[in-house]
Amino acid sequence: MTTPVDTNLDLVLKRELAVPVNLVWRGLTEPGLLKQWFVPKPWRIADCRVDLRPGGEFYTVMEDPEGKEFPTTGCFLEIIKEKRLVWTSVLHGNYRPAPSPATGNKECAHIAMTAIIELEALSSGTRYTAHAMHNAPEQKKAHEDMGFHDGWGTTVTQLEELLKQEEK
What we know:
The chain is globular, with a radius of gyration of 15 Å. It has 168 residues and is an alpha+beta fold. The relative contact order is 0.24. The protein has one domain (16-167): Alpha-D-Glucose-1,6-Bisphosphate, Chain A, domain 4 (2-Layer Sandwich). It has helices spanning 21-29, 31-34, 137-145, 148-167, and strands spanning 10-17, 44-50, 57-63, 69-80, 84-88, 91-92, 96-97, 113-122, 125-134. Strands 1-9-8-5-4-3-2 form a seven-stranded antiparallel β-sheet.
């Protein structure tokens, strides 16, 4: 099921989370939970819509500490409950092509990518693999320079901490 990684175009983050796969899935797909962890604090998600179906909209509004909002819209491509979640920023809901990306120094809307999240149940919790695919080496570099590993790593830690509280 794993999509091959192209080291010239892709970024990958792997973690083992000490929470069960069903909770990780909920954290990835339920707007109320997703809003609590999806961006590194002190940023926050001000709004979120998840139409969990192939062709469904994945919409978030990131808000920086100064209150500036950065809306992003994507499209779900593949959903295998508790195993695999795929979305892209190059399409909007119902597979409508997205307009040309904007540019900006804080926002990630100018980065065209497809995200693949794979989950594997372990006796100790969940193996979480995030695979961010880009269409050009410059896109990969821009995403990496924005702090992909630190940012996505921080958010996965936030997800795990949130879900440990949910588990209680």
